[in-house]
Specification:
Chain A is built from four helices and two strands. With 130 residues, chain A is mainly alpha-helical. Chain B has a single domain, classed as Sodium/glucose cotransporter, CATH 1.20.1730. The longest helix of chain B is centred in the middle third of the chain and has 52 residues. The chains are: A mainly alpha (130), B mainly alpha (547).
Chain lengths: 130, 547
């Protein structure tokens, strides 16, 4: 599915080199370190909310102020955490993953991973520069 | 917006609410505007990328609005408001599930998908697998989800029309469904993805503006106090012929152990379904880069979240100011809660506006579904499986257009049938979500993140999830053995839950794993390297079309 418009298609070898490079390992680690635990967190919190609504309805029906009860407040809390996680993710991507991805994309476009095998040009491309 | 509206008392003519002439005029105006825009958009439709993906020229912000337009279907607007009006808290769960689900799309799917695929969900699922079998499976599940969703929307259109135009006869209702279907086909044929996108942007803006007006109006009546509104809803609910506690959980689902489990199952399907909905995934291909895909999801989350907060107020407002008895007694049943509230607040003009918006909503969503289904058939089944890739892009688009007409016709037929059943639209859509969560999401996640995943694993999780999900629905009380079922007179229901997600979703994950570990073929590590590098860096991603 690689488009024909690329000047020269990247070879499987280049993709392997890129995948094995330390900067890609770092990029993957940074991406997963945010996305995976956060997914577990919001999913558990959502599941807890659903289970409480189903099996702890007395607790959820407890009034907190006026006619506003625990269930409504926790439900609104789901909205708040969703908005919050969205903004945290945007910040994380801007600061931590986009710079590495941009640099790697640039180097891949110039086919730098093809000739990197025996470090030709003295390693100006810092692996951890981000 | 109407400031002072003398509430014309047409309620007496009990089958109709408001002035049909006003409703038709407002709706006709929307259709006219969108048709003009669609025809203008069609000038730039030259290539397959134009037709399927709007040339990848839609901006992140525009796409965010269009996603909201695609996602805030009649289910969201009419179904959720109705469910909250009648069952209060239990209806609230729909909106929370529909919203939280977007985090799956944002964190795990949207950008990676934009970076690796071209037009359809199958592009990414077949990326590192044997192309033809996986494309076929992904296309079948895409068509299944789209059809479920289309039927829900069509049935919503019919119900709405019954309420607003006072059309009672089955033939007249069928005629309206045919009209909706014909318009949808025109949007898709003429405008392609670009035209469809503009229709969705306009519709989302109208819908959110309309909901904002109603929300402020309702809150104004209760001194901008949420507590007072809830109190009002509880008070009205206690005076109805069948009083329920709309503030506590359990009004709809709390009765028995089975119905409680049903609630959990529904919650699971909602939160895992969104990131597997083909028409939502396809929207990510309309933006130039993965960064724009991210931006569009962020916009979508804020717009959708705010809209659901409005729905909470509208739903409780309808429960408080209209009352459950009148809603249930209205021609559209619980789906009529929001229109009835609009009439209660602003008379026939506000009702006309809200009804026009709701109708526009249905049109825009069915157009999005139709283009997705037709793209999947033409790109995956026709071009890749039948013609083995030996087809010109123009030939593919021609097939996509023909498919759009066929799917439109099928949707019209099923929609007319679905009109008779009278199920809550949000509930029908929840079934589409269950299919998406069962057949699509496990395979997408395995494909993107699990190195060892194989063709056999992909086929087992797609077909296993799809068959389990649809099969359990067929043998559930939704289809038979229940007074509210599709076929109330027969009983072949042995599966007790109305939503199968709690069984079919874990089963699909399990089958994907099992199919992989028992398969004899080795995973294609070269293709996985390409997929992983492309998905995270964006190298080789499809570029926007220059005009």
């Amino acid at each position: 599915m690689t488009p024909p418009t690329e000047r020269r298609m990247l070879t499987p070898e280049e993709y392997r080199q890129a995948q094995d490079s330390p900067e890609f390992t770092e990029l993957r680690r940074r991406f997963r370190r945010f996305a995976f635990p956060m997914t577990v967190a919001f999913f558990s919190w959502y599941l807890l909310y659903v289970l409480l609504s189903t099996y702890a309805d007395d607790f959820m029906a407890t009034d907190v102020f006026g006619d506003v009860n625990v269930g409504i407040l926790l439900g609104l809390g789901q909205f708040v955490t969703t908005f919050l996680i969205t903004q945290l993710y945007v910040r994380h991507a801007d600061r931590n993953t986009d710079p590495i991805a941009d640099e790697m994309r640039d180097r891949l476009e110039h086919h730098e991973y093809a000739r990197e095998t025996p470090a030709v040009d003295g390693g100006t491309q810092g692996a951890t520069r981000a | 917006m109407p400031d002072t509206v003398p509430a014309v008392d047409v309620m007496a003519a009990d089958s109709t609410v408001g002035e049909p002439a006003i409703n038709i005029a407002i709706f006709g105006f929307f259709v006219l505007i969108t048709l003009v825009i669609t025809f203008r958009a069609s000038r730039n439709n030259k290539t397959a990328a134009d037709y399927y993906a709007a040339g990848r020229n839609i901006s992140g912000t525009q796409n965010g609005l269009a996603i909201a337009g695609d996602y805030l279907s009649a289910a969201s607007f009419l179904g959720i408001a109705g469910a909250i009006a009648l069952f209060g808290y239990d209806g609230f769960l729909y909106s929370i599930g529909f919203l939280v689900a977007w985090l799956v799309a944002l964190l795990l799917v949207a950008e990676l998908l934009r970076n690796t695929a071209r037009f359809t969900m199958a592009d990414v699922l077949a990326f590192r697998m044997r192309q033809r079998p996986v494309r076929m499976a992904a296309a079948i599940s895409t068509l299944a989800v789209c059809l479920f969703y289309l039927v829900a929307q069509m049935s919503g259109a019919g119900g709405l029309v019954t309420l607003l135009l006072g059309i009672e006869g089955e033939a007249a209702q069928a005629l309206v469904v045919v009209l909706v279907g014909a318009l949808m086909i025109i949007y898709v044929l003429v405008g392609g993805m670009r035209g469809t996108t503009y229709v969705q942007i306009i519709k989302a803006s109208l819908l959110i503006a309309g909901a904002l007006v109603m929300t402020l109006w309702v809150l104004g009546k209760y001194g901008f106090s949420l507590s007072a509104l809830l109190g009002g809803a509880a008070e009205t609910a206690s005076e109805q012929t069948a009083p329920v506690d709309v503030l506590a959980p359990g009004a709809q689902y709390g009765a028995t152990g089975t119905s409680q489990l049903d609630f959990v199952s529904l919650g699971l399907a909602l939160v895992l379904g969104t990131a597997g909905l083909p028409h939502v995934l396809m929207r990510f291909y309309t933006v130039p880069t993965a960064k724009d895909a991210r931006k569009s999801v962020v916009w979508a989350i804020w717009l959708i979240g705010i809209f659901y907060l409005f729905s909470l107020v509208i739903g409780y407002g309808a429960g408080a100011l209209v009352g459950a008895d009148e809603i249930v007694g209205a021609p559209g049943g619980q789906n009529s809660a929001a229109p009835l509230l609009a009439f209660e607040l602003g008379g026939s003009v506000l009702l006309g506006i809200i009804a026009g918006v709701a109708f526009a909503t249905i049109l825009a969503v069915v157009a999005g579904l139709t283009i997705t289904a037709s793209a999947s058939f033409a790109h995956d089944i026709y071009a890749s499986v039948i013609k083995k890739g030996e087809v010109s892009p123009n030939g593919e688009v021609r097939v996509a257009r023909i498919t759009a007409v066929v799917i439109g016709a099928v949707a019209i037929g099923l929609g007319i049938l679905a009109l008779q059943a009278g199920l809550n639209i949000a509930f029908l859509v929840a079934l589409a979500f269950a299919v998406a969560a069962s057949a699509n999401l496990p395979t997408i996640l395995y494909t993107l993140f699990w190195k060892r995943f194989t063709t056999q694993g992909a086929l087992w999780s797609i077909y296993g999830g799809l068959i389990a999900c649809v099969g359990l629905i067929v043998f559930s009380p939704v289809v038979s053995g229940d007074p509210a079922a599709l076929f109330p007179d027969v009983d072949f229901a042995w599966f007790p839950l109305k939503n199968p997600g709690i069984v079919s979703i874990p089963l699909s994950f399990f089958l994907g794993w099992l199919g992989t570990v028992v398969s004899k073929e080795a995973p294609d590590t070269d293709k996985y390297a390409e997929l992983e590098v492309r998905s995270l860096t964006g190298i080789g991603a499809e570029k926007a079309v220059q005009h």
